[in-house]
Amino acid sequence: ADTRLPGCPTWPEDFAERYRRAGYWRGETFGRMLRERAERHGDRVALVSGEDRRTYRELDARVDQLASGFKALGIRARDRVVVQLPNVAAFHEVCFALFRLGALPVFALPAHRGAEIGYFCEFTEAVAYVIADRHGGFDYRTLATSVKATVSLQHVIVVGDAGPYTSLESLYRTPEALEEPRPDDVAFFQLSGGSTGVPKLIPRTHDDYLYSVRASAEICQLDASSVYLCALPAAHNFPMSSPGVFGTLYAGGTAVLALHPSPDVAFPLIAREKVTITALVPPLAMVWMDAAKARRHDLSSLKVLQVGGAKLSAEAAARVKPALGCTLQQVFGMAEGLVNYTRLDDSEERIIHTQGRPICADDEVRIVDEDGQDVEVGQTGQLFTRGPYTIRGYYKAETHNARAFTADGFYGTGDLVRMTADGYLVVEGRAKDQINRGGDKVAAEEIENHLLAHPMVHDAAVVSMPDAFLGERTCAFVIARGTPPPTTSLTSFLRERGLAAFKIPDRVEFVDTFPKTGVGKVSKKALREALVRPAVTR
Ligand code: J2J
């Protein structure tokens, strides 16, 4: 009987068959992968988190204990569990414990607040929510209390001081045998950067994700001597799988978790742990290159700096090797699947000027014009893709899926790219209604909907504006009902509604009308252009 989770579109059987036959999908699960690594690399250090060091054997044992603890709480296979943790070893113990149980983590980011968390809990009908007590000056227990007031959650599980909730530490117990999940079933949900009113959930299977993790580890030449620094939020797809912490564990290496990506936290860790590879978004890469000038820390162990999540300018790309003494690897990926890498032995030219090429020979890439016709090689168009680790649809989103995917299963990435003669992709822009704020994705419609809930807002249009540091920031154009309210009353309204800080508009402009396109839609292009002109008129 097919016991897979309903609401998760999957690959047609002929494709699944092909991906198995080609050896991409190997019927492995995350739980078993960790067990095998513990058998092979038992005494090696798997995770370093603050003063804690966990060997593979310890990690494997703790994951078993925790899986049994989750089960004793009543968490079952296919139950959804919203996980919102900073970069601490408990994050990975929770992940692998849920994987072993066949329960499904929903990966929230530490920056998410009540609006996002409430939505994830409600939409996925989550049974539990896992948090840290405090992180970055914020008390997540307070957030849990407000979320719990509006959605039905059976458990709030806390790393650290649990207050009124269940302490994670109390759940480690004598392990019992558990039934293994199916490799072709969903293992967890990643979040989409999105361009719609509410975030979309991305169902990833053991088979497909493990393929991308294994192939990424190979491309990045990871082995048991590799030391990966996880400086970006561990729940994000990039530091999780490209090759990230999972790829490092796959290779038997050591993953070092940084609580903050700033040079004053990361540089001493690189020096102390002899980090060989790490991943950053472009603004952080810039900050690191500046900070490295002081030469206060020994960064000589670093071989590879991966940069992705947003476009890295060629000028910045060219500075990486001189500033940090390591190879740059550009990474153009997405939580929906497709990941492109420049290869470590590529020419400087390719490394600096392209965003890489796909992982897999069976990643099908189409670049099409507005009419859906393939463009000539070298021309810019919209990127569509299909392959062994690219989803065929979002979770419980039938209507949206019909728009976001072609009838034959290609995912419309919303990215404008061109392909070089040798098959490398260059990101030229974006066709989706999204702002990429230094790697943090903001869906315009989501913010517009929140603004429209304000009694003094008649209409709202959110667009990107160029920014020297973040690449882009957000500007909200607002038509007020009557006299415009102070800008701060709008931004604090959004904060009170529980929006993550990176989604709060950086600038608000009140206008009387919006420019329209020929067919009468709001012209976001004209709004963006108005922003780069010296003065914006009211
Ligand atoms: C330009 N735009 C980029 C790049 C992503 C590895 C790396 C990144 C992500 C990620 C990821 C870009 N240049 N180098 O999941 O595994 C923009 C594109 C893309 C969107 C996906 C990974 N790298 N982007 O960023 O799901 O617009 O994944 O469609 O957060 O980020 O965002 P996300």
TrEMBL record:
<dbReference type="InterPro" id="IPR025110">
    <property type="entry name" value="AMP-bd_C"/>
</dbReference>
<comment type="pathway">
    <text>Siderophore biosynthesis.</text>
</comment>
<dbReference type="InterPro" id="IPR011963">
    <property type="entry name" value="DHB_AMP_lig"/>
</dbReference>
<dbReference type="GO" id="GO:0019290">
    <property type="term" value="P:siderophore biosynthetic process"/>
</dbReference>
<comment type="similarity">
    <text>Belongs to the ATP-dependent AMP-binding enzyme family.</text>
</comment>
<dbReference type="InterPro" id="IPR050237">
    <property type="entry name" value="ATP-dep_AMP-bd_enzyme"/>
</dbReference>
<keyword id="KW-0436">Ligase</keyword>
<dbReference type="InterPro" id="IPR020845">
    <property type="entry name" value="AMP-binding_CS"/>
</dbReference>
<protein>
    <submittedName>
        <fullName>2,3-dihydroxybenzoate-AMP ligase</fullName>
    </submittedName>
</protein>
<dbReference type="InterPro" id="IPR045851">
    <property type="entry name" value="AMP-bd_C_sf"/>
</dbReference>
<feature type="domain" description="AMP-binding enzyme C-terminal">
    <location>
        <begin position="446"/>
        <end position="521"/>
    </location>
</feature>
<dbReference type="InterPro" id="IPR000873">
    <property type="entry name" value="AMP-dep_synth/lig_dom"/>
</dbReference>
<dbReference type="GO" id="GO:0008668">
    <property type="term" value="F:2,3-dihydroxybenzoate--[aryl-carrier protein] ligase"/>
</dbReference>
<dbReference type="Pfam" id="PF13193">
    <property type="entry name" value="AMP-binding_C"/>
</dbReference>
<feature type="domain" description="AMP-dependent synthetase/ligase">
    <location>
        <begin position="34"/>
        <end position="395"/>
    </location>
</feature>
<dbReference type="Pfam" id="PF00501">
    <property type="entry name" value="AMP-binding"/>
</dbReference>
